[in-house]
Amino acid sequence: MSENKSEEVVNGVVVDHSHDRVFYVTFGAVLGFLIALTIVISIIAGAISPDPGMTDLRRGQVSERIAPVGGVYTSAEALAAAAPAAAATEADTRSGSEIVAQVCSGCHAAGVLGSIKLDDTAGWSARLAEAGLDALVQSVINGKGAMPPRGGAPGLSDAQVRESVLAILEGAGVDVP
Prior knowledge:
The chain is mainly alpha-helical. Among the domains are: 7-46; 96-172, Cytochrome Bc1 Complex, Chain D, domain 2 (Orthogonal Bundle), CATH 1.10.760. It has 7 helices and 2 strands; from the N terminus they run ββααααααα. The protein has a two-stranded antiparallel sheet.
């Protein structure tokens, strides 16, 4: 056996344990550095003050933006208190043409999943002749194929859906009786 105390014989093989010592020293140095870095970052973060340009108006805007969008009400009193706030939301005042541009065109502009393209006069004429205007409006209200009810805009009224269907037909050059 060697004179070095970091060596020992295991199953007839000389094993040197000095690499263990090197690992422990290196690991301790890295760990100490990371702890010191964490302390320095904590001190710097604590010294940084909030943005001096953050006014009360700006704080209000931020609070409004990050406020919850819904709630769970488990009692009748809480539900009654929340109902007036829900009823006070603005009514959708978009015209049929605006709804077509913002909602319907997402699929009908490119004919996604077999939908009739906005400018397909023959396709819209055939659909109108096959079902009639009222049935066409009902298919939009209830959904048809891959199209969700109300074209994916649940806030639309029946009148707005009808106006949108008329705008699509007019845009395609289809005469509505």
